[in-house]
Amino acid sequence: TVGTQTDYRDGEAQTDPYSPEYVVPSGSVSELLTLATLTWGRGLPAGLAEVEMIERAREKRAWEATLPSMENAAQIAKRRKMMDDMERKEWAFREQEIEKLQEVRLEVLKKLLRRREENQNELDAKRLDDHWQNHQKAKEEKIKKIQHDCALMLRKLIAKRKNVMGKLERRDIIKEYTDFASQTYAPLSRIGYFPDNHSEHYVVKNVYLSTFAGLCELEASLPDSVTQVKIKAPKPKYTTTKTGYIKRSARLEVELAQVHQ
Fold first, then answer.
1. What average pLDDT is seen over the chain?
2. Rounded distance between C-alpha atoms, residue 133 and residue 127, angstroms
3. How far apart are CA 14 and CA 11, in angstroms?
4. 199-207 — which CB contacts under 8 Å span 24+ positions?
5. Helix or strand or coil: residue 206?
6. Where is the CFAP91 domain (predicted)?
7. Looking at residue 236, what DSSP letter applies?
8. Distance CA 175, CA 184 (A)
9. Higher pLDDT among residues 168 and 132, named by residue
């Protein structure tokens, strides 16, 4: 099935390469033993740096073969001079390696600083964007309030201009009853009318609904058609037409029944 795995997966079967046992003959030094410190994942498979290290080891063994013997004082002085020169070369090479390593670390540090600066810039931009959005929202709300106050003041000014001279007008009852937004139909609470008051006047109070005997009497007065539901059986569908042919729907129902069986 889909959920089954094999016993030998690629990830479990992949191991480090096998290193067999070896025997070194007496009096000989194998070149491969100089690479015994390299293991799989740490120097193996060999890259450019490992090849350069092998070449330097070969050059050092060739140089050691050219060293003079220590038989007399002149040979000893020459040998010491050659060893001092080789030591200076090794120190110079080591300094170059340290400088390369420092350059690599400096590049990594530069990348980390650049990435941190980019993240900080993104955070600053997001913070500024949020701040700008908040200011825009406050600005829109303030403009909306100003427009609302402006419309309110305009309505007040228009209402005052209708009666500039301050003349007293008589009540027009016909106009009030023709306008459904007038105080007759929709009185305001600020002039002393509260529509929620005295709402208990609209509650239906009936003796038939407040007592059990009234409910029984009300139920007895109902017709039988309300309490006893009569269901008419549906008429069977005719499977044949007036001319005596079987309808297509009936044939399909028979075929479906056969398939179901």
1. 84
2. 10
3. 6
4. none
5. coil
6. 4-156
7. P
8. 10
9. 132
Helix (H) or strand (E) holding 39: strand 39-40
Q: What is the CA radius of gyration of the chain?
A: 53
Tell me the β-bridge partners of 246.
Answer: 240
| CA–CA separation, 35 and 37 (whole Å) | 5
Distance CA 31, CA 62 (A): 12
Number of Cα atoms under 13 Å in the Cβ half of residue 8: 3
pLDDT digits (tens, 9 = 90+) for 40-79: 777 777 788 888 888 888 888 888 888 887 778 888 888 8
Alpha helices in 26-72 (DSSP H): 48-65
CA-CA distance, 257 to 174, in Å (whole number)? 75
Residues 6+ apart with CB under 8 A from 125: none
Q: Which tokens in the block code for residue 258?
A: 């056969």
Phi, psi of 122 (to 5 degrees): -65, -40
Sequence-distant (6+) residues with CB within 8 A of 207 are 214
